[in-house]
Amino acid sequence: MTIADAVFAFLGVGALLAAVLPRVVAGRPLSMPLVFLAGGIVVYLLPLPLPAIDPVENRLLAEHITEICVIVALMGAGLALNRPVGRRRWATTWRLLGVTMPLTVVLTGLVAWWLLDWPPAVALLLAAVLAPTDPVLASEVRVGEPTEDEHDEDEVRFALTSEAGLNDGLAFPLTYAAVALAAAAGGGWSGGWVGAWAAQDVAFRCAVGVLSGWLIGRLLGWLFFQARSPVLRLSEHREGFVVLGATFLSYGVTELLGGYGFLAVFTAACSIRAAERAHGFHNVLHDFVEQIERLFTAVVLFLLGAFIALGGLAALTWQGAVAGLAVLVVIRPLSGWAGLLGTSLGSKERWVIAGYGIRGIGSLYYLAYALGQQGFAVPAREVWAVVTFTVLASVVLHGVTAGPVVTRLDRLRGTAPPPAGGQ
């Protein structure tokens, strides 16, 4: 037996499990991501001739695997949302982005600076990479498949899905801020980088990301649904793999223009959905991209489990563990609650939205990316240990509780859960 034989066998088993597990664990105190994470840990604890998994040594590979997983998930999230974009329609989302996210970043940075005694740049880096939410890791808190009715999604699922779609891109300016601060001041503090950062990394790149995604989405929406030629009107052929073309095109073109590709992918998905909101082709696209997303998620979490089994948490201190848990059970819930004050949401809905700010694959991507851009005053393995522990704790905590909590919330509201998204 060779390593390649074992890899093929594990890939086969993993693909079959990715198809079966979402239906098996639906509504139970268990989740598919948790199963694959635990599977990676168990398999790599066995005396088998398996390749070493180390995102610190293989940073570029870790960056690109997680990058693909995130952009595929963003396309799926945008296509799933039934509600048109608007100031009032998305009021909960804007609060989560404008109040909850900044509060989370500030409090996380202060905890890292005070409790871990990390320099300002590293504290900001930790806050930046733990800023984006990742509901893909708990299917019960995501919206279901696309439907014709813009009101056919409850506020909890809508808020968490739309928040994740946008703050996965908005975490990039924060990551660049940490990189710029490290380059300017090393282990200290400097404000000379702020002006250039605000103009280039915030204003310009965000604007290019949104505008590019909107234009590409409009163009693809016309091509899919309105092109005069049946050959070009791709919705007539119902081939789901074209969603990968839309994903990679919007991401690649925007990155070439200097914008944020994550923002572009989600914006393009919303624009495609708006082009012909009631067309069944959206379900074809959504189902295909969700299957790809599920496979990548399974692979990434299995590899993360392998990294943990091989000593990925060896550099974790008790202070790092406390900081990670504080983000999940104190900082995000309180910041989320503060952001939702004054809305029409009930107390239970506010706590569910506030509490399920899941940390996951986006955090791994941002960390791998940032460490490739600039050296930081804290060893990379120590930062990786804190982020890995936080993701591990989030997968366990949120994966075990999401199903029962959301099911109970649906019962209390007297509403049936929306159609399963297949995750």
Distinctive features:
423 residues, mainly alpha, Na+/H+ antiporter like fold, 14 helices, 70% helix, globular, disordered C terminus
Please state the average pLDDT score.
Answer: 87
Number of strands: 0
Number of domains in the coordinates? Answer: 1
Distance between the termini: 33 Å
Give the second-level CATH assignment, the architecture. Up-down Bundle
CATH domain fold name = Na+/H+ antiporter like fold
Strand % is under 5%
Q: Helices and strands, in N-to-C order? A: HHHHHHHHHHHHHH
Integer-rounded radius of gyration:
21 Å
Report low-confidence residues grouped into runs of 5 or more.
418-423
Structural class: mainly alpha
Assembly annotation: single chain
Shape descriptor reads globular
Give the fraction of residues assigned to helices.
over 70%
Q: How many DSSP helices?
A: 14
Write the layout of secondary structure elements.
Layout: H1 3-25, H2 32-45, H3 59-80, H4 91-115, H5 120-129, H6 155-185, H7 194-225, H8 242-256, H9 261-275, H10 281-312, H11 318-340, H12 347-355, H13 361-373, H14 380-413
Helix pairs in contact: 1-10, 2-10, 2-14, 3-6, 3-9, 3-10, 3-13, 4-5, 4-6, 4-11, 5-6, 5-13, 6-7, 6-9, 6-12, 6-13, 7-8, 7-9, 8-9, 11-12, 11-14, 13-14
How is this structure best described in words?
- The protein is globular.
- The longest helix has 34 residues, at 380-413.
- It has helices spanning 3-25, 32-45, 59-80, 91-115, 120-129, 155-185, 194-225, 242-256, 261-275, 281-312, 318-340, 347-355, 361-373, 380-413.
- With 423 residues, the chain is mostly helical.
- Residues 418-423 have low confidence and may be disordered.
- It has one domain: Na+/H+ antiporter like fold.
- Helix 2 packs antiparallel against helix 14 and helix 8 packs across helix 9 (261-275).
- The two termini are 33 Å apart.
- It is built from 14 helices and no strands.
